[in-house]
Design goal:
By secondary structure, the protein is α+β, with helices and mostly antiparallel strands. It has six helices and 16 strands. The longest helix is centred in the middle third of the chain and has 13 residues.
């Protein structure tokens, strides 16, 4: 089983303001806006971090899952871990694992050339876990959520070039790691007492929730080509900075050399 981290989705109350912060801090332009999310009562934007993507969504009406998530976690923050597998067989294996562990499929879409499966964030105990595959099978190129191809014209790696890890927090990180391991079909690795799951191109890290916001997607490790520039830009925008960590959209971004 090879699962690739292709996209992280954040949720924000004010998409315009968060987009300005993300563009200003990471010097990365918007690569795509998907009008299709309107059917879920959302608006969005996506930007490329190398060959992976950071998405932000915001509710446009009452009663959305995203709105409930904002209320539950007390504001902006991490929302979805979005991954890609090579074929239907690997997606079906995760689907079977989910059923075996009482995890509901929150959204399922077969679009012929593109197959999406989202697992319920409550059942995953931290965040949505999306697993999708498409007929191209390009894990660093074609990506349907950004319109397939063409996004390569809107990439700037001067400050950031990849997402290296997603950090999921819980009152019981070992139990959360074991749960995600059972669903993903990948082993838990103990690294100096911290549970990790190694994806094909990034890690999932499981830590204790210490920020008062409860379980969720709390942080990302990003490969920073210009950590000093990111920190300076965050400070200039009045965003929280602690060492080589900046906070944007309620999410901690750890700047990894």
């Amino acid at each position: 089983m090879a699962i690739y981290l292709r996209q992280i989705c954040l949720v924000a109350k004010d998409l315009k303001a968060v987009t300005a912060d993300l563009e200003g801090v990471f010097a990365t332009p918007v690569a795509h806006v998907d009008p299709g999310v309107g059917k879920f009562g959302l608006e969005n934007m996506l930007m490329a971090f190398g060959t992976q993507f950071l998405e932000a969504v915001s509710p446009t009406r009452d009663g959305t899952a995203a709105g409930r998530y904002l209320d539950r976690r007390g504001g902006d923050g991490g929302y979805m871990v979005i991954t890609q597998v090579r074929d239907k067989g690997e997606q079906d294996a995760v689907r079977a694992n989910a059923a075996d562990n009482d995890v509901r499929v929150a959204y399922d879409s077969d679009r012929g050339h593109w197959h999406i499966m989202q697992l319920h964030p409550g059942d995953m105990r931290a965040a949505f876990f999306e697993v999708e595959w498409d007929d191209t099978g390009e894990v660093e190129g074609h990506w349907n959520p950004v319109g397939g191809s063409g996004w390569q014209d809107n990439v700037n790696t001067d400050r950031v070039s990849a997402i290296r890890a997603a950090e999921l927090q819980s009152d019981d990180p070992a139990a959360l790691a074991a749960h995600w391991s059972a669903v993903a079909g990948l082993p838990v690795e103990d690294r100096n007492g911290v549970p990790h799951i190694a994806l094909a191109n990034a890690d999932l890290r499981f830590v204790a929730a210490k920020d008062g916001r409860g379980p969720g997607l709390g942080a990302l490790d990003i490969r920073a080509s210009d950590a000093a520039g990111i920190v300076a830009a965050a400070r200039a925008r009045g965003l929280p900075v602690t060492g080589n960590q900046v906070m944007v959209c309620g999410t901690r971004f750890n700047l990894i050399d």
